Amino acid sequence: MGFAVYDYRKDVRNVLVTPQIRSRFLKMEPGQTAQLHSHDLGHEIFLILEGRVEFEIDGETEVLGPGQMCIALVDQPHRVRVLGDEPMTMYLSVTPHIHPTHTPRSEDGKPLPHNFMPAHAYDVEPDMEVSVSELVARQVHAAELLEALAQTCAAVQQEMGNQLETALAEGDTDAAIAARKAMWEALYPVYKATAELGEVWNALAPRINQ
């Protein structure tokens, strides 16, 4: 079986939801407006596929049509309003996707209390056979693992960073490459563990909203 292929004309939903990224096709009706909000951790990319829409991002407005794209960076308040008499369909992605994914904003742009959404808001079915107690235990374990890896990583960055500087100063390219490799090999597990922590958190946080 081949990989999944998605069509914006029928797959109007979240198609990929992970701690690293949430991507979806979204359809909005004429005159519909999304609430002003921002994202604490990541950037959101919008690509218009059909219709016309007015974007407000960080106080600035632009009108986009099919084939055009815009980006709301982390902490930039933004919202959309569909223009004309036709529905609007877009592709959007948010990176990373960590609950709470949205911070509502007042009309003057001030942050409001975080908006923790239930899992089904992102087309995710929670595994209710896993208890909250088990999820909490997994959360603590993932955090402890990340802490240990981060401590190891910090030590390696210090040692190999010094070696990298020395190698570059001495013109020793091979030694510099080796130092860089060691720095990355210590950094990579931290990123992996961070994603694992986010995955457990994304399973735990919405349980309060079920």
Describe the protein in words.
With 210 residues, the protein is of the alpha+beta class. Helix content is 34%, strand content 25%. Strands 1-2-9-4-7 form a 5-stranded antiparallel beta sheet, with no helix packed on it. It has a 3-stranded antiparallel beta sheet with strand order 6-5-8, with no helix packed on it. A two-stranded antiparallel ribbon has the order 3-10. A hairpin with a 2-residue loop joins strand 5 (52-57) and strand 6. Helix 1 runs antiparallel to helix 2 (173-204). The radius of gyration is 21 Å and the shape is globular. The model has no long low-confidence stretch (mean pLDDT 96).
Strand arrangement in the largest pleated sheet? 1-2-9-4-7
Q: Approximately how much beta-strand content do the residues carry?
A: 15-25%
Separation, N- and C-terminal Cα atoms: 34 Å
The total count of strands amounts to 10
Query: What structural class do helix, strand and pairing data support?
Result: alpha+beta
How many DSSP helices?
A: 2
- Residues in helices, as a percent range: 25-40%
Global outline = globular
Outline the fold blueprint.
Layout lengths: L13 E4 L4 E7 L8 E2 L4 E8 L1 E6 L2 E5 L4 E4 L5 E6 L4 E8 L7 E2 L27 H39 L2 H32 L6
Antiparallel strand pairs: 1-2, 2-9, 3-10, 4-7, 4-9, 5-6, 5-8
Helix pairs in contact: 1-2
Short overview:
The chain has 210 residues and is an alpha+beta fold.
Features:
210 residues, alpha+beta, 5-stranded antiparallel sheet, 3-stranded antiparallel sheet, 34% helix, globular
